Amino acid sequence: MTWAAFPGAAAPCDDDDGKVDLAELKPPFVVQLVRQVNYSPLESTRYFIPVEGKDELIEVVEDDSVQANFQKLNSYKNFKCDKHNKFFEVTMYQKDPVNKYPWRANVARPGN
Fold first, then answer.
1. Contacts by residues 38-42 (CB-CB < 8 Å, ≥ 24 positions apart)
2. 13 pLDDT exceeds 60?
3. Cis amide leading into 12 (omega within 30)
4. Statement: residue 19 has pLDDT above 80
5. pLDDT tens profile 32-45
6. Whole-angstrom Cα distance, residue 42 to residue 84?
7. What does the alpha-carbon distance between residue 24 and residue 77 come to, in Å, rounded to a whole number?
């Protein structure tokens, strides 16, 4: 999972404050990547969106996803790196999905 280390620091950009207008970009989904050491606090939580017409993802801040009303789907995958004793969780978010289950949390109110 060498791609999880690139870039080494969070670098969302577009404006000076790091905000991205998701209403203008209209991404179909947001990907959340969480990294933590086994039985320890979270090391990082990062959010990415696809760029239309390119094979790349750009990083956005959590507030961008909240303001654009992206909702957490019941779709995630956990990965474990035994060598480094780290866990990675990849979670998908979608804008206003048809959601009949009120227990599903959104970005602003993550589930327990």
1. 38/80, 38/85, 38/86, 38/87
2. no
3. no
4. no
5. 999 999 888 899 99
6. 15
7. 29
